[in-house]
From TrEMBL:
It comes from the Eukaryota. Residues 1-231 form the Protein kinase domain. It comes from Ceratopteris richardii. The lineage of its organism: Eukaryota, Viridiplantae, Streptophyta, Embryophyta, Tracheophyta. GO terms for cellular component: nucleus. This is Protein kinase domain-containing protein. InterPro entries: CLK_kinases, Kinase-like_dom_sf, Prot_kinase_dom, Ser/Thr_kinase_AS. SMART domains: S_TKc (SM00220). The keyword Transferase applies. PROSITE patterns: PROTEIN_KINASE_DOM (PS50011), PROTEIN_KINASE_ST (PS00108). Keywords: ATP-binding, Kinase, Nucleotide-binding, Serine/threonine-protein kinase, Signal, Transferase.
Amino acid sequence: MHWMLFYAFLFYCLHESCKNADMHELGLIHTDLKPENILLVSSEFNQTVGSKNTSEHCNMKKVPKSNKIKLIDFGSTTYDKECSFSVVSTRHYRAPEVILGSGWSYPCDIWSVACILVELCSGKVLFQTHENLEHLAMMERVFGPIPSYLVRRLKGKGLKYFKHERRLVWPDRYTSRESIRAVDRMPILSDLLENYADSSSRSLLDLLERMFSFDPVHRITAKEALQHSFFKQVDH
């Protein structure tokens, strides 16, 4: 299960970067974690037999010799106490607190990593959208409603997405049929993992649910994630 090792190394980059010190403990937030900013250390690979096609020819696939990775593009990395931008992260990997303008910190990195893990598992970008309300609707479709206590805490622009400080205003009068269909096609997280993951899907689901917590205060940390039971299966 080489992709599990990739997950572990990704968390390791967050937890053990900067001369073996915890990146987040140093007060650093990457703010732009996405597949393009995660590189394999070595370009060497082995060719193995994949699946046979209808003409009985074998499809070959390239498997990296090493799962070691490194993070790049620290151009938008910031210290926690020096957060000056209201919007961070590439759209598809953006945490809900960033969209809602309720303030962001270290947990926004964890949300981004969770999106990457799902993408590695399914081969598809989880939130393929470019609009805030649609993005929030997709999140609720996959994870369930945003907790009302978080909505009640919102100030400013974040409140416009909700009715009576409870229900997401979706769809609104500007929502296209194409957008509604895109949201309706989104599977809940457990169904998505059943389609793409193997026997480890139950522990992976538990890990992702903790990473995808709408409340950043309750979102699992990189250090805690490395201790999760999911990674105990890496060596088996």
